[in-house]
């Protein structure tokens, strides 16, 4: 059995828990730092990245999350979660956890398009992946180690760097759980070949 945690400091976590379900997966709602130790993988949900960061600091999650990433354990950040993972945030002096070599731009689709749905073609996953965008960021630039998994309207909306996965949208808000299951497979593989 592998353990995947969903960071539950803010935002909806129930849908993530459901999308991660698999016979060999135990999903844990993470509210305390001590729970992280048992986790083989972690999901950062959407919400509001500055609020989430404030709560990360308040509850002492900052260093433990950095250590989790430094150990090479898989992390999947969705929307605000992806912003937490970026090395650079356009227009902001400091990033948050800085685990993926990419620059993100917050609220990049503008006011007219606060939320919308799209079907994406995703590398390694398939076509017609349903994606719900809510005040979504975009991934503006990626480093050489980062693999672009999906674009929408010529903009990068999903990417992977080794054990780290990020997307601009909310894959948990649809019945299509392929993207979460792609992450589950990453966790499976990381356990088969432990990080050095
Ligand atoms: N706009 C939010 C932020 O900047 C992210 C939105 C979301 O997670 N749905 O943090």
From TrEMBL:
<dbReference type="GO" id="GO:0042823">
    <property type="term" value="P:pyridoxal phosphate biosynthetic process"/>
</dbReference>
<feature type="binding site">
    <location>
        <position position="106"/>
    </location>
    <ligand>
        <name>L-glutamine</name>
    </ligand>
</feature>
<comment type="similarity">
    <text>Belongs to the glutaminase PdxT/SNO family.</text>
</comment>
<comment type="function">
    <text>Catalyzes the hydrolysis of glutamine to glutamate and ammonia as part of the biosynthesis of pyridoxal 5'-phosphate. The resulting ammonia molecule is channeled to the active site of PdxS.</text>
</comment>
<keyword id="KW-0456">Lyase</keyword>
<keyword id="KW-0663">Pyridoxal phosphate</keyword>
<feature type="binding site">
    <location>
        <begin position="134"/>
        <end position="135"/>
    </location>
    <ligand>
        <name>L-glutamine</name>
    </ligand>
</feature>
<dbReference type="InterPro" id="IPR029062">
    <property type="entry name" value="Class_I_gatase-like"/>
</dbReference>
<dbReference type="GO" id="GO:1903600">
    <property type="term" value="C:glutaminase complex"/>
</dbReference>
<feature type="active site" description="Nucleophile">
    <location>
        <position position="79"/>
    </location>
</feature>
<feature type="active site" description="Charge relay system">
    <location>
        <position position="172"/>
    </location>
</feature>
<feature type="binding site">
    <location>
        <begin position="47"/>
        <end position="49"/>
    </location>
    <ligand>
        <name>L-glutamine</name>
    </ligand>
</feature>
<feature type="active site" description="Charge relay system">
    <location>
        <position position="170"/>
    </location>
</feature>
<dbReference type="GO" id="GO:0036381">
    <property type="term" value="F:pyridoxal 5'-phosphate synthase (glutamine hydrolysing) activity"/>
</dbReference>
<dbReference type="InterPro" id="IPR002161">
    <property type="entry name" value="PdxT/SNO"/>
</dbReference>
<keyword id="KW-0378">Hydrolase</keyword>
<comment type="subunit">
    <text>In the presence of PdxS, forms a dodecamer of heterodimers. Only shows activity in the heterodimer.</text>
</comment>
<dbReference type="GO" id="GO:0006543">
    <property type="term" value="P:L-glutamine catabolic process"/>
</dbReference>
<dbReference type="GO" id="GO:0005829">
    <property type="term" value="C:cytosol"/>
</dbReference>
<protein>
    <recommendedName>
        <fullName>Pyridoxal 5'-phosphate synthase subunit PdxT</fullName>
        <ecNumber>4.3.3.6</ecNumber>
        <ecNumber>3.5.1.2</ecNumber>
    </recommendedName>
</protein>
<comment type="pathway">
    <text>Cofactor biosynthesis; pyridoxal 5'-phosphate biosynthesis.</text>
</comment>
<dbReference type="Pfam" id="PF01174">
    <property type="entry name" value="SNO"/>
</dbReference>
<keyword id="KW-0315">Glutamine amidotransferase</keyword>
<dbReference type="InterPro" id="IPR021196">
    <property type="entry name" value="PdxT/SNO_CS"/>
</dbReference>
<dbReference type="GO" id="GO:0008614">
    <property type="term" value="P:pyridoxine metabolic process"/>
</dbReference>
<dbReference type="GO" id="GO:0004359">
    <property type="term" value="F:glutaminase activity"/>
</dbReference>
